[in-house]
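The following block was generated as part of the benchmark described in Methods. Ligand: iron/sulfur cluster.
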Amino acid sequence: MNSDVTENQGKEDKKIPKKFPWIIPFSCEGCGDCVEVCPTGSIELIDLGKKVDKAWITNPDTCIGCGKCSQACVVGAVQMTEYVDRAIQRYKEKKKPE
Ligand code: SF4
Ligand code: SF4
């Protein structure tokens, strides 16, 4: 009874989120609300040696695109984008906000 096993064989069946958080570091005030609500620990505050720490997606692989970080941010520093590939690439290339 192995007729169905060839599908997805050898491929990790990981779901890519439909939307992904796009952080606008300039707008971030470092309150940490987004970090608190994230169920997967994908977003963290980064110390850049400035007055306030800035939120960043430090673990794009674990982000499920739930949007809770965006909803929690009262200043609109986290927007959900449909350009998921670009967003993931951004966080993989840049390990911290500028
Ligand atoms: S909730 Fe918004 S302002 Fe607060 S740390 Fe997160 S991105 Fe920055
Ligand atoms: S979209 Fe969800 S999982 Fe991804 S960083 Fe925001 S709160 Fe965390």
